[in-house]
Amino acid sequence: LARRQRDLFMDSGNKLLAAWGKQSQAHIESLYEGEHPTLEKTAFTPNPARHLLAQLQNAILELRELEAGSLRLDNNDRSIEVHLCHSRTRELEVLHDRLLGIFKGPKPPRPDEIVVLTPELAACAPLIEAVFGAAPPERRIPWRITGLGATEENQAAQALDWLLALAAGRAPASRIFDLLQHPLVAAHFGLDETGLGQIRAWMDSSGIRWGLDTGQVRAIGASGEHTLETGIDRLFLSWAAGSAAGRAPFAGHIGATHAPQGSAGLTLGAFWRYARALGRLRAELLQTHNAEGWRAILLDALTTLIGEATEHAEEIRNVRETINTLADDIASGLGAASSTLPLDVIRPALAARLNESARGGVPGGAVTFSALPALRGLPYRVICVIGLDSDAFPSRARTDEFDLMAAHPQKGDRQRHIDERNLFLDIVLAARDILHLSCVGRSVRDNTELPPSILVDELLDTLAAACAENPGQTSSLAIARAKLSVQHPLQAFSPAYFVPDKEDKRLENFRSEYAEALTIRMRREQARSATAKPPHQTIQNNPDAITVPAFFNAPLPPPPEDWRCVDLSQIKRFFNNPGRFLLRERLGLDLPWDNDETLTDIEPFIPGRPARSALAERLLPVLLTEENPAAADNETNSDSDTLLILARAGGEYPAGSLGEIALRRELATLREFAARIKAARTQARLPAHTTKLSFNLGGETWTLQAAFSALRADGHLIHRYDEARARDYLSAWLDHLALCAAPPPGITNQTRGLTRDGSFTLYPLPPADARAQLQKLLTLYREGLMQPLRFFPKSAWEYTRHNDEIKGQTEADKKWAGGEYPEKNDAAWRLALRGMDETLDVQFRNNATAVFGALRKHLDINI
Known about the structure:
This protein is α/β, with parallel strands linked by helices.
């Protein structure tokens, strides 16, 4: 450069090399600084190929720029491509299809000539297993993952590392259960999937939130009501005393809600042994020990936790060798047997020893998945990099305040973001034939565009300018950039992959089952007339406009004869959720409720509805037996003391003064509610009454039967300690109609309901009118057994609550699709209405009026 007088006042060379190769440049300069190096024999060989990747590599080698508009990208040139997907799983699915296409092409590489790199190997490992490991034999590609640490690959090491993390922390319930359901731990304690499911439910119902024992949590001033120790005490109390365990406290506790029964005691015993083992190991691990002490404790922890699993003997042997090596190093380093170390030092040291042998990126006869730093400059014919999102690579620099190297940088200092740029340069130069890059480039929620890594952007900008027909025009640059990028649909079964006239020929999919399914669907659609076409739903913001077939494309056959004798309780369950009832009762699909399946790790700080309901279920029977349930609660009243003890024993309300105030306030409300119930029970209870009504529904004889055991002369009384909801009114209305249709002698045909926030009354109606209303409801019930009935209780109640139809429709739409718990998000409705129009249409309005119209005319609400 000096000989050509180009070394002053200007930059020269290749801008990608200058931007990405700073670490290598500083390293070379430091090697030759102040020296007069002797040039040895060098062998920098240009890439002989003519594809785009070779052109880029040769430009970097020759220290020149790719001139704007200097290249013409051949349509068959796929040496550099960026694939934009909607998720990491889709990236791997796309990669699998791309590799199948490469193997199918001319001069295919061997599997060991392909490496797949990612900046998040541990997070991608289960997804790789799911995509590449689940492929059928005809599409199977030999693959392996290298570079994962022992705490990821070695199950024995993983279980021990989880135990040390649990002992060092606050022991949240989710971590306690995660360790228990580890395959080696569960097998050692004799637990299968059924037993683990039982323990999961017991932990939730017994209030286990965090902490192994009361000593651990009380040491920091917290309550011991939500520890593992207390929860197991409640479980044993329930197992021993049954339902009586919830009526009176024993040693300050009551039994858990879901009580273990019978042979479940064996599972409870295994859970108890596990809890005892955790408590003992944590007490030992939190003490400081010398080298021999840590050797003994860690080996004992490994044996206690997983035993001697013969099928994992090699993994266990490796972990034991690592423990012994670490103990030997500690002994030689400390130099004195009396020197001790805490767990905070031992745990990271052991993890580092377990993971230090993790390497990767070395060819091994199969497609190799590894972490980005594992490349080591080795050349591969095909290099694939997944996970190149803007926030994943290069990683964001987070400098510590005490980092003097960051505060006073010097040439050659290691900086992660510079190292990662240099690493990307090494990847570009190491690929011989194909460089496959991919990232999450579209939002899985609304299909909006997401930016790739800044390094991918810089690469695309450079190549697009070199390949554009007119680099001075933005549109020409966009076209060139699009030729280097592949936009993939949201789903692997998208028709965009299989239609013969697809816009982008680079969209590849080798899943023959998807092609066959789409062919069958197209044939059915062609054979079906336009008027008989089933309803469908078009997914918006999706470039391939997928149509989802309806789950119910035709009604089910009418229910058989044994369905025509209906109990009133069945009708109640049906109208609470017709979609769930249809799926469960006629199709056998029992979908989970939309509750969070994860264990709660935080004890309650604010009492919620579940705590209030549990308190009422336990205390209300006691209050109803008192002579004066409305008596004020005070410390001098022994009955009140007993009630407070029973209330506190459940642990539903938080500890401390705030929890005590909330509990006393709730007790006062509960006493007032019990007093209202007793005041409404002034008349004696009548004998049990049963009724059986017959109806003709479409030529079929249907029978409705009901039984009432708590009737009084002044009518039917129901109560529920909660705010009144649509389902309360509907349940009371069904009881009321059955009583009015066939009234028992000597009773006033009115129904009264008591709720936490007030009361309501249903006034009598003539037997003929009651039968007519029941006929309507049974007709809807019969219809709902064949296809989804468009009746959504919360939305229907809002619709009928307003005299103005427009206002009612607006409020119903809000309840159906808005708020914190929209009715449309129920898993049963999502499945039952799949592929159908989900708007609240005329059929919904007619059903809402049929169910709630007459009810409102006879309902008097007193809030």
